[in-house]
Amino acid sequence: MLPTIQKILYATDLSEPAKHALQYALSIAKQYHADLMLLHVIPDWARNVTLGSGLDFATIYDEDTWLKIKDDVLRTSIKHAKERIESTYMFYKYELEESGIATTVHVQTGHPAKTILQFSAEVDLIVMGTYGHSRLGNLFAGSVAQSVIAQSTTPVLVVHLEKNKKSAPL
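The structure corresponding to this sequence follows.
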């Protein structure tokens, strides 16, 4: 029996490979008349800055100030990420709506691979992009994709963008 694809998760980090992978996600969604869920995960910047700098900013600022800073930065990041995602697929929006394909945009905070895996329970296919130019590059740019592939029970399509190549204009 052939698998049915009713819902696709397109995971994006807003990079060139992710834009390139969007074209595949849209094509598959059209072929299968599948709904498309667009997901961007904002890493926990406060934790990353704290770990990277060796400073605990929660001890430098009083709790109210620290929470306000975190909330303001997070709110702004989510707003900008949603705008970038929507503008990236806007070119295809009318065509998708005409085809009866529903799209939703989700912006979450947390660990990218873990969040993608949480969303994967709701879909039949995950589509994501990665650079495919070197072992060192894959160690960094591909670590989320590698983690998702290794842990997902949902099929994953990883679209590589070769070095010095840009995605087709959207």
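Helices lie at 16-32, 45-53, 57-60, 63-98, 112-120, 135-140, 143-151.
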